[in-house]
């Protein structure tokens, strides 16, 4: 299914408009590794390069990096990538439409 460019643009604009609310919600709680990510990590080769698609502000990427995986953050929202960079300056960042 092809999504109209206008819908993608509106979605990114909504994330940008409410970025402070989003960040406050994520910062309220301690990071908990999602069960699916834990299961997925069990089958990963440590030398793999991982793309965190739709990374937001990089919560999962930071965890993966601490576990010595090589991670690249990918998100369509530039302000989220900037925050991810402030929180972990060694994460490569890519702004892209997923």
Compact summary:
The protein has 98 residues and is of the alpha/beta class. The protein has helices at 5-17, 19-28, 35-42, 59-66, 78-87; strands at 49-53, 70-75, 93-95.
| Overall pLDDT score | 89
Name the poorly predicted regions: none
**What share of the residues lie within helices?**
40-55%
Count of DSSP H/I helices: 5
Q: Tally the beta strands.
A: 3
Secondary-structure content class: alpha/beta
Q: Distance between termini?
A: 13 Å
Tell me what you see in this structure.
This protein has five helices and three strands. The protein has 98 residues and is of the alpha/beta class. Strands 1-2-3 form a three-stranded parallel sheet, with helices on one face. Helix 4 (59-66) links the parallel strand 1 (49-53) and strand 2 (70-75). The mean pLDDT is 89.
Task: Record keyword descriptors for this entry.
98 residues, alpha/beta, three-stranded parallel sheet, 50% helix, globular
Describe how the helices and strands are arranged:
Layout: H1 5-17, H2 19-28, H3 35-42, E1 49-53, H4 59-66, E2 70-75, H5 78-87, E3 93-95
Parallel strand pairs: 1-2, 2-3
């Amino acid at each position: 299914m092809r999504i109209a460019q206008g819908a993608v643009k509106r979605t990114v604009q909504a994330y940008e408009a409410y970025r402070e609310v989003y960040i406050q919600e994520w910062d309220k709680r301690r990071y908990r590794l999602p069960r699916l990510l834990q299961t997925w990590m069990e089958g990963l080769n440590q030398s793999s390069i991982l793309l965190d698609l739709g990374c937001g502000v990089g919560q999962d990427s930071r965890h993966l990096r601490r576990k010595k995986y090589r991670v690249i953050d990918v998100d369509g929202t530039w302000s989220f990538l900037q925050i991810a960079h402030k929180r972990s300056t060694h994460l490569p960042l890519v702004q892209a439409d997923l």
